Amino acid sequence: MTQERSDNDLIKLALEGDQSAFEELYRRYEKRIFNFAYGMVGNVHAAGDVTHDTFLLVYKNLYRYRPGKSAASWIYKIAKNVARNHFRTRRRGEERYVSIEKKTSDDESSLADYLQTKDKNPEETLRIKEFHGELQRAINSLPEKYREVLLLHDVEGLSYEEVGQVLRRPYKTITSQLAKAHLLLQKRIDPNKIDIQFFFNVPKRRSYLLSAMKTKFISGSQLIEYVDGKMSNDKMERFKKLMEEVPDLRNAILAMEKSRILLKHKPFVYPQAGLSEHVLSSIHVESPPDTPWFAPFVNGFDMTADFIFTAPRILVWMLILGLTILPSMVKVVQIEERRSLRVVETEKERKIKPGELITTKKSEMILNRPELFTMKLEENTEAIVKQMSHVGGIGRNEIILQNGTILFKTEKHLSRGDFAVLTPWFTAVNRGTVAAIERTKDSARLVVWKGALLISFSDSAQKPLIIRALQELVFNPHEPISAFQPISQEWLEKLSEFSSDRLVVLALPPKNPAAALVAKDQISVAFGFMNIPENSRREKMKEARRLFENTSDADSMKKARLILDQLAVQYELEGYLNVSAPLFLFEAAISSYLQDDQTALFVLEKIGQDSRYERNVQALASVAMGIIYERQEKKDLARKAYESAANHFPDTTSAEEAKERLSQLQ
């Protein structure tokens, strides 16, 4: 099985136009954010609204996330701000906490039912119900600054540093407020309704805010340090002596320990039924996340604000003092960064300026800006460099395509939107891509191998479109825009040679991919071989490609299939499952085209039952098996294959195809 993708990776992919990556990020944090929102606003329906608005803002502001920082802290920070606004603007008199009897969703049992299953003793269950209800009321009654710290650290499990990032408060402020929050929580709990001794085997007594904190200079941070067991031995001994002298200090420590145990017993509140669909449907209708021109300024402001609010106060004042004095003592030096575009033609290099026309005749030409982008102009291509500017992450590079073909890939230091190819009909903006644009007199073709392209049309009546990885679009200004097509074999191989990735890729249409995989009348998938490092295997790949180009020759197709099977087995034994999977699947596609269903079923079953392969691959194989069984009129086996995909891999794209096939079998 593949390793779970990190939050950083998911956000990066979402910025490149991959909505499935954002959906995975959403499902990873949905329950935690809902539970936190409920703790803040105290109402299930209001918590649902906060969760919805939080993830909508996360999607729109993906460019504000700083890689390397905690994604959890960033998402919780947004949730905290949304919850604050909701809490302050909601109608007066609205319920501030959910009843212990109220259901948290249409299809889930109430908290009381949940607690009842934990212990069948009615008297004890009643006590637990009262305990949880009173605990939630006590949390809701805390001042906002204490409630936030308590929920983030003790309920949501964030570290002190992460809580500081969310709330933009220094470390000592966080620990001090957390100590006071625990003490306040104990004071707010009504002892007449909760028998503390019932839950904890300690004497029942009221807790107090410390007079000792003033008389003996005991801070909240020291209390947290003691309870966490992080005090040095010398400090610990002095603290224990002080506890013997000051009874209030002993009471405070006991109250904090009780409070922590109380919060551990706080039940997790689950989101309402249908919340996921509501949030994701709202996100799908939103424009894709993009980086505006002012993003560097916003991110710079965020970094500055985080430093000012979380750094020790003395360090902040020293920095402010230095910034006010140093400019008057040192001359400001302005550094102008100059970048140029290089053209590489038949082993010669030359620089070009904006406005210069570039023309290719016999040989291809490479345009290169180090660490920004690389472009390949094929024969008989004309292009004009309209603009070149990229300083400090700001700027835009624009190329006007007159005619011919441009293949381009962007490097890691180029921001999305900083590179564009212009035609009279549309502007194609880079989104971390390897792509191609081919223009003739009357039409254009756009092909994406990696990332995505945002197409803005010159005709304002047409809405912008996004062309994603492994898709292509033929645009004719005189005809309506047709649906995106899966990338063709020709373009897949052409772009794969230009790309530096060492991959083997199978391109399937986004709708009904399993049906395309095992189609009998034609091969409806595209297969690309990348830069295979081993000479022998690379030659075998080329031989296979040459053989299956002639689809009318069954013998050639069988020879190509045998080569693919041998390579797939070798890569599988070596553990390169991301290479063996597309090889096996394409072998199944060739077998189905040759009407050799037995071989196709054998290969698909091998993949579908091997848990080492990705869930999407297993689901695709199961649905494809069902289609072949259905074609053979083996409806029971077909139904079993569809149900396996739908039930075992419900979060995959092939699961929808399986459900649709199942409904047609009824």
The CATH top-level class label of the domain at 502-665: Mainly Alpha
Report the strand count.
15
The largest pleated sheet is described as:
13 strands, mixed
CATH architecture of the domain at 502-665: Alpha Horseshoe
Beta-strand content bin: 5-15%
> In terms of per-residue confidence, which ranges show pLDDT below 50 for 5 or more consecutive residues?
91-120, 192-216, 328-338
Indicate the structural class: alpha+beta
Radius of gyration using CA atoms only = 31 Å
What is the mean pLDDT?
76
List keywords for this structure.
666 residues, alpha+beta, Rna Polymerase Sigma Factor, Chain: A, Jelly Rolls, 13-stranded mixed sheet, 26 helices, 15 strands, 52% helix, 14% strand
Set down the secondary structure blueprint.
Blueprint: H1 7-15, H2 19-41, H3 44-60, H4 71-89, H5 111-118, H6 122-141, H7 144-155, H8 160-167, H9 171-188, H10 196-199, H11 212-215, H12 220-227, H13 233-245, H14 247-264, H15 275-284, H16 295-310, H17 313-329, E1 341-345, E2 348-352, E3 357-359, E4 365-369, E5 373-377, E6 382-387, E7 397-410, E8 419-422, E9 426-439, E10 444-457, E11 465-468, E12 471-475, E13 485-486, H18 489-498, E14 504-507, H19 513-517, E15 526-529, H20 535-548, H21 554-573, H22 577-593, H23 597-608, H24 615-631, H25 635-648, H26 653-665
Parallel strand pairs: 7-8
Antiparallel strand pairs: 1-2, 1-4, 3-6, 4-5, 5-7, 6-7, 7-9, 8-9, 9-10, 10-11, 10-12, 12-13, 14-15
